[in-house]
Fold:
Amino acid sequence: MEEKKEKSKAEQLAAKLLFKSKNAYETMSADEIKAAYDYCEDYKKFLDGGKTERECVKEAVKLLGANGFKPYALGDAVEVGGKYYYDNHAKSLVAFVIGTESLENGINLSAAHIDSPRTDLKQHPIYEADGMCFFKTHYYGGIKKYQWTTIPLALHGVITKADGETIDFCVGEDDGDPIFYIDDLLPHLAQDQMRKSLADGITGEQLNVLIGSRPFEEKTSEAVKLNILSILNEKYGITEADFMSAEICAVPAVKARDVGFDRSMISSYGHDDRVCAYPSLTALMTLDKPAHTAMAVLADKEEIGSEGNSGMQCEVFFDIIAALSNYFGVNDAKVRLNSKCLSADVNAAFDPNFPEVNERRNACFLNYGVVVTKFTGSRGKGGSNDASAEFMGYVRNLLDAAGVVWQTSELGKVDQGGGGTVAKYISQRNIDTVDIGVPVISMHAPYEVVAKTDVYQTHKALEAFFKA
Structure:
């Protein structure tokens, strides 16, 4: 039998002093890898069922209800171990479990967003031109406009009619449904267009959704438009004026699918940031009677600055903390002071096809686990939360103790660009906050890619945090 060779002093020091991130497949057992892949099957169903923030809230409420969570209204009585959710205008959600310790010891909070880049219909969207009928749109969030042409689209949303009735609207997802389409020039006639930059090749006003070409049976002006409106009126009872009180968006008419011969990745619309929202929910649903009260926030409008009464800047999220503090007779400011938040948002995975935008030592990689992002922002950390060393130390030790595979990252090279999250709006309330989430390839594209191991490690990280 061969004798075990004693490590040299350099090898011993290297093991003690040097740091190297590990690929999840190097540390996860076969059983845990299977658990990760199984976990992602339900995640794919969540993605397919929730392509808008409204649909995400509905999917979340179904999951929470099936796991013993009850509706909560501001001022309601609560109990230790009680599980509750607050549905905010059907577009954002707060779910929480009351812990055994005093609320004054703080809340363990996660905050993700459930809106994704897309194209929204304008208030007067429908028009006819040269025998074709279109919807005018205004894009939502940061997109590469050219990516949204010549792909199958579905229309999702709600319409409030003149009589006050609000109806759900979804066309393009079922196999028997028609799909919709934004056209582009053929390369044979695109010489002028192809001389333009990628940013200018397609303009915002050219993102018009093709919806029909058949004229009404009787000869009349705008015959194609009239035919489309007659179809919509017959099926939904709506008129052209009803689009003024509608929220309808065009999203990719595609399902979440495995990527690669090894099925190790998932491609889907809306990973940013539903890939963090779902683990926040599933981690919360594992709790029975945690020591600290645990809370998951699913916010809207992050992609346009977290504005409005469903975005993270809305007071309602902190009204809930204040209402709970008041119920238990503790100081709201002290509760926030002692609270901790993992702002669950994605980061941009290193892409070897575009290495020039990253500083490799401070980038995140697929299959290297959940990403802890100390700061976001742009250029001189503008618009960033920038977590403290003490809180980074807390999170680091927490994840290591729970056996979570994790990594750190910034969002691209200095001065290359950058981005923001909801973290700053939470930390402004004197809550220690850091970003944590999944690395994404092709972020903000109609079809993004994540690794299954990273999704699962995010669930593990949030579960450990909620149980701390």
In short: DSSP finds 13 helices and 23 strands in the chain. The chain has a mean pLDDT of 95.
